Amino acid sequence: MKNIFIVVFALICFSAKAQQAGTAEVKFPVADPSPADIVYFPLNAPKVKAGDPTKPIIKIVYSRPQKKGRDIFGVLEQYGTVWRFGANESTEIHFFKKVSIGGKKIKAGTYSLFAIPNKDTWTIIVNSETDKWGAFTYNPSKDIVRVNVPVKTLAKPIEYFSLTFTPVTEGANLIIGWDRTQVELPIGF
Known about the structure:
Layout: H1 2-22, E1 36-41, E2 58-63, E3 91-95, E4 99-101, E5 104-106, E6 109-117, E7 121-127, E8 143-150, E9 152-168, E10 171-188
Antiparallel strand pairs: 1-2, 2-3, 3-6, 4-5, 6-7, 7-8, 9-10
Keywords: Signal
Protein name: DUF2911 domain-containing protein
InterPro entries: DUF2911
């Protein structure tokens, strides 16, 4: 009988210790200095009511690095070098229907975006490989299209890397801005 009490007591102690281990405080990672964001076209697409004919055509998931007093293009992001188009993981663009970029038709689906910044023009790249970290394993043989776009110099710097869309006849322009640089990528649909 004494052995049964010892076994029961040991099981109770073990169970209590296991419950304590399960309730230990979890350490969460600190907030990312380049937070993730999403932009849609049309811009109000995620807020529309069910049944509204306005449905998203494009969705971009990207991370937003900050300027933090640094010179960005030509210094932090070298001219002539493939850049991940944001921070952290490669920026991904999802087309909900067929689109046209630089005269090339692109099927609905998810792609990655890269850029090669230069002083007066950027090359914007749509690539078929997704779910990659940065541009470290960028594979140019997977490019769907490359488009050269002119650079516009802004009077005031933009602190966070930022993306938005403006509607145009038969499509939208993806507007890219960071520091004193802005470029536009025309997308037709």
